[in-house]
Amino acid sequence: MSYKVNYSPLLRAHTPPARQCHKVCDVAHGSSMKGQTLLSQADGAVLCGSDPPDDSVKALKAHLWSEETSEMERLLGKCRIRSQLVRECMAECLGVYILILFGCGSVAQVTTSQDKKGQYLSINLGFALGVMFGVFVSRGVSGAHLNPAVSLSLCFLGRHPWMKLPFYIFFQVFGAFLAACTVGLQYYDAILAYSGGKLTVTGPTATAGIFSTYPADYLSVWGGVMDQVIGTAALLLCVLALGDQRNGSLPDGLQPVLVGAAVLVIGVSMGSNSGYALNPARDFGPRFFTAGGGWWWVPIVAPCVGALLGTLIYQLMIEVHHPPSPSELQTSCQEANEGKTGLEMEGGEPDCVKPT
Amino acid sequence: MSYKVNYSPLLRAHTPPARQCHKVCDVAHGSSMKGQTLLSQADGAVLCGSDPPDDSVKALKAHLWSEETSEMERLLGKCRIRSQLVRECMAECLGVYILILFGCGSVAQVTTSQDKKGQYLSINLGFALGVMFGVFVSRGVSGAHLNPAVSLSLCFLGRHPWMKLPFYIFFQVFGAFLAACTVGLQYYDAILAYSGGKLTVTGPTATAGIFSTYPADYLSVWGGVMDQVIGTAALLLCVLALGDQRNGSLPDGLQPVLVGAAVLVIGVSMGSNSGYALNPARDFGPRFFTAGGGWWWVPIVAPCVGALLGTLIYQLMIEVHHPPSPSELQTSCQEANEGKTGLEMEGGEPDCVKPT
Amino acid sequence: MSYKVNYSPLLRAHTPPARQCHKVCDVAHGSSMKGQTLLSQADGAVLCGSDPPDDSVKALKAHLWSEETSEMERLLGKCRIRSQLVRECMAECLGVYILILFGCGSVAQVTTSQDKKGQYLSINLGFALGVMFGVFVSRGVSGAHLNPAVSLSLCFLGRHPWMKLPFYIFFQVFGAFLAACTVGLQYYDAILAYSGGKLTVTGPTATAGIFSTYPADYLSVWGGVMDQVIGTAALLLCVLALGDQRNGSLPDGLQPVLVGAAVLVIGVSMGSNSGYALNPARDFGPRFFTAGGGWWWVPIVAPCVGALLGTLIYQLMIEVHHPPSPSELQTSCQEANEGKTGLEMEGGEPDCVKPT
Amino acid sequence: MSYKVNYSPLLRAHTPPARQCHKVCDVAHGSSMKGQTLLSQADGAVLCGSDPPDDSVKALKAHLWSEETSEMERLLGKCRIRSQLVRECMAECLGVYILILFGCGSVAQVTTSQDKKGQYLSINLGFALGVMFGVFVSRGVSGAHLNPAVSLSLCFLGRHPWMKLPFYIFFQVFGAFLAACTVGLQYYDAILAYSGGKLTVTGPTATAGIFSTYPADYLSVWGGVMDQVIGTAALLLCVLALGDQRNGSLPDGLQPVLVGAAVLVIGVSMGSNSGYALNPARDFGPRFFTAGGGWWWVPIVAPCVGALLGTLIYQLMIEVHHPPSPSELQTSCQEANEGKTGLEMEGGEPDCVKPT
Known about the structure:
15 helices; mainly alpha; homotetramer
């Protein structure tokens, strides 16, 4: 680790162009509390120009006491991947990993502590906050689908390219599988102690339900399909409403919280029949851990149907009826004119006040 | 599905005016994470002007990998309804549907799982978050009344036209009825298993309470009326305070969350007497499902009285006393002058510093 | 009710100056969803200038279908009180009323339903959300003290005039008393049924604890004083940190929510000893309802001591050490110079970079 | 307390530069509702200039009724410490104090009330909201690490100077110790009554678990290490995602709330094995109160490993892959050019579009 760059804060004091530099550096310093702009702060210092160090003891001391660019961040920076698709796949994978880590973790805690360290509401909170942090981890990179049924709906609406769909789905399932492994590792002792060493899918000390969803005893297959379709449709209705800018704006950063709230309310109101999977990846990834029964296809197929249904309901009841925004008016103008000859172009605009 | 428009991203590279276009498209691309502006992104691409496709393989590939306007969104766009009243009725209907779907769903879950998958607090959360998402779904279109008593109060204050009142009320009740049907469908197996096939209004396995509210055994009719009047008045007090810009501003998007919190606190503090209907539509719509007793009129009449009472209290204690804003001063100026002859108009302003 | 002003929307169409008006009105219409600016919308229409009505049937129809200024709002406007002190007293009274209505209501619900419709956490939520809505109701008018101990601390810091203190305290206690009456009315049947008609302060069906706080059996008086001092000091620490702009900013509207969260966490972590009164008004107002014992002075004296203590801790550990803001630098400059002769005024500024 | 300074509002009238002051004062007055800028309001008033007092009764009256600078705030201002390090240490100390006061307080409440005044979820809420308010108290001064493992990770990333690390750690542990003392004082009577006077680490009425964490009976040491590593890594993943501006922005003031939510979800999903210490200071400070066993080193070592692990995962999967921001591009430009001779400087920019 070399300290070459570290001398600069010290030296700025006696170099003439340092004057206006202070301002820049102070600003960077002021925002340094968020812990994210420290890199650019130190880099800002570099930009201010500085002479070679003439007092390395002082400089070392300054280095040890002030926040500055580290070799570590530089080293990490060398690992940067530029492929957008790889970045998106990693983000989806990590997002679903977080979701399942917290979600299935809360089921494991409630199950193995026999309701002493949490109740059904804890599980609802675990999945809700798991989804919220999954969205926070991946929103800026992949758009935080975290759910094959959501990816499918967005492809269907034309808001996501179909060719990316298999990649997204694979890494969503893979992230869920990794998270199930982690939960299994973290609760290994607890699951053994709780089940007496016998890992079973049914019975009083069944632990398969920690990882995947199973229907209640009374539930028919048709009832389970209905349950999943209605739940996923309700989820999509809420998520689309939250993202519909023309219905009302949201402060940046509140959307992931409210997506979590949607998962919370679905868990509170639609969780008892079959465990609100609503997400093929959430259910299928962890199921590799446990023996499946005849139920496995329901949390894969029904959420996709439900997601498309919820999308259509919200579109047909609210979103498509919004009056067009100015930019859309202009566009439809353009489109209308594309059917005509190029000569009509300049005279075309008056027709376009009402979009076709 | 034709790919005509899809060639454009490819072709922009060799057309001269594409230069300044990139900026526009990049901006659109940057905001594409919210999933709502993708349509305009692709449209923006169209605006950039492009030559006819000369390489359809490349173009098809580009299409499959990039996000762009879909035929689907165009198809959905054709369903657009322009009538403001129809849009408002659909929004109220869908908003109340969401509210009851989550609210009554949570009662069904707690009841049929016999408190194993939720307790009274889950029901409080179900209605609170149900109201929140009901508001998010409808706020930009109809103003999210979701409650005939609220619509009535707003008409009374002159903030909503009286003629729209019956339409709003009908579609609020209709949305609640549809939601009760959906909850009945989703919990069909569970309700049958819980009640042993006997659907009853009273008794140890009564399930009518999933859909409508019933008073506690000890409650007199007069006590029930008081309960509903106080609860609805408290709701209106809170909602009016949240919307009173001169009392303090709120970030856009926080208001629906806090309206949900108002419903939560009322459920936590005024729920045990008669189930905090507070909303004629919430109670009357689902009641078609179940046999009614002598109680049905209380959750219809008392919330309306309470809503008017709460409105009056907040108005008379807080809102009417706010010092007038500059625009109101100007208006009252104008009004004062309207009583005079037109000639006094230009000299009228000095009198108007203090509104009459 | 006269419809004079209602013609204007209709008439604007054929008056020449209506052109640039449309913009104004559309803007007003766009913001009309919040339900608070509808008054100014209609007034805006008035400002656009219009001819006398020539078709009153059409005008009446337009009136009935559009949102506009009502006679009701005009009538309510006549009740406006201009005295700042009276407005502040009403706001404090209504704010504490809301706080106690929800807080004591939640205790009544949990007590009379014997933990079936809520548990201790519901009571924590009832007081937390009660404080939150109490703040929302009064924040813009009185600053939302809602607590004599808070008013006292602010007077002590010089942030509130001492002369207003008795008025604030009286109306805080009065609001709490009114709320206790309301809770008593709302839960009259429930309390009678629960207690078998015997209203007692102690015993298995005691109901005095619904209204005031009582210490746990094991608690010594000194332990109770400590409990209240620590609790109120923690509350003030949190509230002062939330309001300390130089420690970090908060979006408008989040502060009341976080004050509610402070009350929630105190209820969750300091509630079991003596019921976290923390507020002389919260305890003393409702106590008129019930027989008091030797405990009554603790929730009055100890919160005041605790509030001063918390204020001092936050001041001495965080707030006084913030580097001075530019405006304070200027002021201390000025003050330093006031001690000198006026002639030194213009030369005084260089000394003032470091405040004295 | 003398009222000398109170005449000043009166005296301001006869100084010439008072004119442009009015504006300043109005601004200050407008923001006075938040209760934190009242000091500058009154100071602003001093600048506005007024005649010498000719009627000290009036002046006194004005003083008593209006909000103005107090002797108290001036007195407190004299205690201001200018050393940045001392301020940061005090902030870390107070922040951890708040965290442990609420966190361990909630454990004490649930334990001594035997689950009657709270359940495991209350403890989750106590720690979550404790962390949140700890962050609010210290975020603007020290950056709110509140955890030696977090400080270590930030030093490792080069975002915090290594030399400050021992100071931070000492005051974090010291704050936790003080808080444990306070909880011990507040729950002294309750702990004695609950344990029958015998303070034990194990057994049915053990109270050591109020202060420090102990593993579940079934947990192996290796399982405990895994549990702590996974939990702390998950915490760091969430916190780094919340602070990663290039992944998505957050409104100021929401970040502390969401850090609290991260602690909540970890408590809900990873709390039953060994009590989610995740923080050497949280566990080691209070442990001085109680007898330790062979477990004490796990909550010290494992969180540090976990924090570094979580940091690396987030860095390598999300943050390092963000496309560079414009300012970073410029910097890497500069750096690339530093390797060349100074003459190439002006020609160096074109190479720099792609950072090296």
